[in-house]
Every structure is written in C-alpha cells, then in structure tokens.
Amino acid sequence: xxxxxxxxxxxxxxxxxxxxxxxxxxxxxxxxxxxxxxxxxxxxxxxxxxxxxxxxxxxxxxxxxxxxxxxxxxxxxxxxxxxxxxxxxxxxxxxxxxxxxxxxxxxxxxxxxxxxxxxxxxxxxxxxxxxxxxxxxxxxxxxxxxxxxxxxxxxxxxxxxxxxxxxxxxxxxxxxxxxxxxxxxxxxxxxxxxxxxxxxxxxxxxxxxxxxxxxxxxx
Length: 219
Hints:
This protein is an alpha+beta fold. The chain has four helices and twelve strands. It has helices at 2-9, 22-35, 38-45, 60-64, and strands at residues 46-53, 57-59, 75-76, 80-83, 89-97, 103-114, 117-126, 138-141, 171-175, 181-187, 193-200, 205-213.
C-alpha cells in the first residue's frame, strides 16, 4: 500500500519538447520581422556567411548592417520545406506579401541548424508564380537509404562548365552534411538568377525545386 502511494505521488517525467524544425524557424523569423523590425529580424536569423542578392550576390550581414527598419514589415509563410535525411538542413519556399497584404511573389530560404540554432544561409525569391500557399506547410524529407551498405552518397550534380562560366562570385553551391540535400545558384550578368535544389531519393538525386528569377527592370 505504501509503495503504491509513493508511486502515485512520484512526478511523471515530462516529454521533451519537439525540436524546432526549419518551418518553425521560418515562422519565428517572420514573426520577428513584425515584432522587432524587418531588417533586425533578417540580421538576427542570418548566418555569418549568408548570401542575398541585389541582384548580384552580397554577404548578407554586410549588406544588412546599415539598413534601418521600414515602418512596417513584409510578411511571408512557408508552403514547402525540403529537408535532408538528418534533419539539419532545409530549403523552405512559399509566398510573401507586401506591407499592405498584397501578394508580392515567392521566397526561398536555405536553413542550416548550427550550434546557435537554425540560421539561414541563402535568401532569394522571385515574382509571383500565380499560386499562393494554403493550409499546413508540407515537409519533404530526403531518403536515408543508400545504394549499398557502407557506400557513400555522391554529392549533388555540380554546375556544368557552361553554367558556371562566369566568375566565382556569380555562382555558388552547398550541401547538407549527410549529402542528401544540395543546392546551387548562378547569377547572370543581367541580374537574372537560377536556383536549383536536389534531394537524395535512395538511388539517385531528383531536382525538387527550381527558381528562375528574371532580371530586374532596367532603371
């Protein structure tokens, strides 16, 4: 009887909170834009070597440092998240909206989980594709299966010689530590940009996202 009472009084171990996903990080980033200011939020969530485009590639922290927050921030929400097998790298994409709530286009953000938490390393996007995100964001995880036990997963397909014929500053690529998610980008001389995402499917890589961003209007 005493043992039963002691067991009944013993505290029940609380279940650990689920780890923050890249979708959670994106939503927190968007909330911070409204809470602490647009560019303050961009600086807070950007990794030290993150890149943005103006339209050529720039180091995000250098570009963002002098910017003052606008009176109101844009809004955005993820529609799809392409995640590596180990869950530590992801590419999010979805619509963004102007300060007055009108559709502004789509965004694409590459996220990596660091010792400081999730940080974005690539931020880009383009004009509206005509479809807005509705419902719950969808997560697409890369396969953890390899061709043969112990066989290494090859890196994602690199830029071809033709695609990478401009200077190194005009193109870049990255991949998750487990090599199940990879991406590359290239900016043409006119400011147009291509961005590709490849995901490991267990026996091959499949292109799961392609952004074709047109050149900005001539001023």
